[in-house]
Amino acid sequence: MIRNDKIILRALEPADADLLYQWENQMELWNVSNTLTPFSRHQIVTYINQISLDIYQTKQLRLMIDIPKENRQESIGMIDLFDFDPYHSRGGIGVMIYKQEREKGYAREAVALFAEYAFSHLGLHQIFCDISEENTASIKLFESLDFTFVGRKKQWLKTSEGYKDELMYQKISTK
């Protein structure tokens, strides 16, 4: 477990299958996750079993974002490291916070904590993210955490309103 005084980042467990099934099948999130079709419960369970393998095998890591609530923890989102490249010491980062828990600072806490883990524990030199030009909340989030804008992919994302640009951000370790 990776934690600070506000959030806990923990490994996926089989008990998370129902929550992941619900979140992964919310169509309004598909545009930020490049998802085109619904996931079955079987696919989610298989994913949970595979993601628990070594990060060097799967090249990805997904952690649940929990907050302490009285005598228990409540899952409010998830954070991913994807395209993990140990040779070049880099990986992509993505975060999702459940709609009712947004704008409370949890995403900022999670990304900051996860970035520190990626740099100090995994030994990454850089982490990156790709954000739709319309996702101003994510742009503000990553810029507030010293991610640097490094480029724009023109008309990269196909949406129901037409093609949108995707912005590229990265953060280089200072260690």
From TrEMBL:
The lineage of its organism: Bacteria, Pseudomonadati, Bacteroidota, Bacteroidia, Marinilabiliales. Keywords: Transferase. GO terms for molecular function: acyltransferase activity, transferring groups other than amino-acyl groups. Residues 7-173 form the N-acetyltransferase domain. InterPro entries: Acyl_CoA_acyltransferase, GNAT_dom. Gene3D superfamilies: 3.40.630.30. Pfam families: Acetyltransf_3 (PF13302). It comes from the Bacteria. This is Diamine N-acetyltransferase.
